[in-house]
Design goal:
- By secondary structure, the protein is α/β, with parallel strands linked by helices.
- It has a single domain (7-208), classed as Vaccinia Virus protein VP39 (Rossmann fold), CATH 3.40.50.150.
- It is 33% helix and 26% strand.
- The chain has a seven-stranded mixed beta sheet.
- α1 runs parallel beside α2.
- It is globular.
- It starts with 11 loop residues before the first helix and ends with a strand.
Length: 209
Amino acid sequence: MMHAQQPYCENPLLRRSYNLIAPLYDLAIERPLLKARTRSLRALSAKEAIRVLLSGVGTGLDLPLLPAIHRYTALDFSTAMLSRARRRGAHLDIDWVLGDSMALPFADAQFDHVVLHLILAVVPHPEKCLSEAARVLKPGGTIHVFDKFLRPQQHAWLRRALNPLTRRIATRMDVVFEEVLREVPQLQVVSDIPLLAGGWFRGIVLRKI
């Protein structure tokens, strides 16, 4: 059962925008981000079956890269995105959930791993998204983040100037990961590597302590 008050409702334009751009989304980002996605997901190639949450699965571009041994739950707030993702997940044991990454409809400590690919810089409140991922993660489990972040005190004037528009229709340009992480003290950084665009896109692994 989904939460009655969903934080994404603060920005209804964002949901409508992603429903509209779903057919074009893959054309824009599939090939440019393929290597980075693959590198971020390597840690999920374990031999033992685990439970994995894909929070903000989008059109499912991660799905062909995932090992079939695991049990997956794929969540997104866009019906159009989920519809496209289903076609890519036919080979996986996967549950589909229409829901909000900032108010996950799951009990505590349900998953061994959580994947947050290109979602922390999309949601209005990335700290809520990360906190919810930590809540549903088992102690000792990991969160795999792939997204674009500013560094602390980085000026990035153009990105910040564009942010008031882009955050309403597609993605935020002003998220500083270190500031988001500060709000979720039960997580510790395992690794943090640059993946694309001179380090603007980063691959970060977090563990719940």
